[in-house]
Amino acid sequence: MSGDTPARPTLLYSLYCGASALIAPFAWRKVAAKLRGYGLPEERVRERRGHASLPRPAGRLIWFHAASVGESLSVLTLIRRMGEQAPDAEFLITSGTPTSAELIAKRMPPRCRHQFPPLDTAAAVDRFLTHWRPDLGVFVESELWPQMLVRARKTGCPLVLLNARLSDRSVKGWKKRPQTARYILDQFGLLVTQNQKTAANLQAMGAAPGRIRPGSNLKAVSDPLPVDPETLAAVRNAVSDRPVWVASSTHDGEEETVLEAHKALLRRHPELCLLLAPRHPERGDRVEALIKQAGLTLARRSMGVLPGAGTQVYLADTLGEVGIWYALCPLVFLGGSLHDIGGHNPFEPMQAGAAVITGTGHYNFAETYAQLTALGAAAEVRSAAELAEQVAGWLEQPERFQAARDAAGQFISRQSDQLDQTVEALLALLPPPAGRP
Predict the structure, then answer these.
(1) pLDDT, tens only, 150-191
(2) Other CB atoms closer than 10 Å to residue 230's CB: what's the count?
(3) What is the C-alpha separation between 14 and 387, in angstroms, rounded?
(4) Which among 35, 199, 400, 434 is least surrounded, fewest beta carbons within 10 Å?
């Protein structure tokens, strides 16, 4: 692809196709059991074999394929914008997990439907493509299923790799197979990356420089997290005029640091309340034990209890309510970052008007955090003492804290401008409506 000659199928690709046919029955049994275990009807389970459970709509169809929840939800705002620009276009989202299907169904833009993707076998993929006949295929982040890509491109469907992000390990693996990497990347007419590093990696893997376009992270322009106004009002009333800070998406081994920081903060701000929202709410019992072990008082959201005047920690161990906590308090520590976990999406709190504190283990968002810290929209900490000092600084210097929040808001606004450019680039690849030149 780096030259004018199109890349050709490689022996490795042919071996992959043969192997996928051999293991297809075993793969089918595994994925079918998982979907049935979730309680899905059989017609939806059969989508993994390429059998559609919905009719193909008339008109031009744009197909988005994403891995799971975060990637699926990140494209909804993009689909909404594209739908406004191309009112005749219809949309199909495929994603592999029942959870993503459930969340997409709740937030579906107009003229959109969801299906589970076909297994990456010739029979399943061809069955899927014969039914849906997409006019444009958009693959999100790192979903490089070889047969799905090659067979879709053979139908004449232009393909885009969007919001591209590849781990160092993945890049290293592909570089060991340069001809196959080039062949797979050659299926894409456009590769829009999250950052410059991915753009450089794709070029090193064999992608044509002319097809690579650095963009923004789609998650930066996703719709804000949902907020239940009644719950927000109830918690806000319970907290009253006490100062609050949020520690969100914390993992095992991080709560100890957060609680140590909170104890230090209480010596300076005795009325301070910590709203602690673990990444995995099922760890609630474990986190409650840690809070008690630290000698702190708590109330637990999953028990239906609101924080009282003497509650030092409000344990928010529920699913789907993080948006409420960000709306309640704009001072947020984002977990998954004090250890080598990779960090979590900083755009969600920033869309709610928050400034963000993070640990240094945020390699999944390294380039984003580099920009945010340079702008003053985020701050990095390495210990409980540094975390306490950062929270105290923002609590005690409201002008400085407001400047951080303003910087975060301006960053989000710039990403929205880049989204419009992405919409234009995608629609430029969409064939014109039938009967129109």
Answers:
(1) 999 999 999 999 988 777 888 888 889 999 999 999 999 999
(2) 8
(3) 53
(4) 434
Task: Report whether 53 contacts 81 (CB < 8 A).
Answer: no
User: 110 exposed, middle or buried (CB, 10 Å; 0-12, 13-18, 19+)?
Assistant: exposed
First to last CA, the chain: 29
CA–CA gap between residue 22 and residue 114 (Å, rounded) = 28
pTM over cut 0.85: no
Q: Name the domain count of the chain.
A: 2
Asked if residue 250 belongs to a domain, the reply is yes
Contact 50, 126 (CB under 8 A): yes
120-157 confidence digits (pLDDT tens)? 999 999 999 999 999 999 999 877 899 999 999 999 99
Tokens standing for 256? Answer: 């100890």
Both 41 and 163 in one domain: the answer is yes
Q: Residue 361's closest CA among 390, 378, 341, 379?
A: 341
Which of 63, 6, 34, 44 minimizes the C-alpha distance to 430? Answer: 63
| Residue 144 near residue 69, CB atoms below 8 Å | no
Which residues does 267 contact at the CB level (< 8 Å), separation at least 6?
none
335 sits in the region (left: phi over 0; alpha: psi -120 to 50; else beta) called beta
Same domain? For 185 and 265 the reply is no
Instruction: Give domain status of residue 428, yes or no.
Output: no
Average pLDDT (42-48) is 97
The CA distance from 333 to 247, in Å, is 5
